[in-house]
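User: Run a structure prediction on this.
Assistant: Running it now.
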Amino acid sequence: MHKNAQNMHSVSESALISDSVSSAALPLRQARHHLVEHCPVEAAISRIGGKWKALIILRLLVRTRRFNELQRSLPGCTQRMLTNQLRDLEADNLVRREVFAEIPPRVEYSLTPAGQALEPVLRAMCEWGQVQVMREPADFEKVLAAAR
């Protein structure tokens, strides 16, 4: 039965890949992730997945921040990683980057309406983590207060 399930999985991946001409040149794993319209969970994870994106969005839910302020609030996140993650979030229309014409230049990051719409998702993730992992009562407001 396990072998049949594996064969069925391979067939569905092959069908998924054949649906798109542009993905034909991609390796199987990349092609499957390239066609995010086939799975809404995969589409969401491709936008906010990874170690830092959800944490960046959480910080920006509290308030608009400058780059160095964001970096200080994310210990372990390098300048290069933060820059790349912010660029990805901006490209996905989740974060707005506003440059002020001042000397020295000032850049602020805030959430777009699409980014703000992730608040219930982050709330659910936070509460799940508090209850299931940390074994404490769910309290999203406590987490937001700590992110201030």
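Strands lie at 65-66, 95-100, 106-111.
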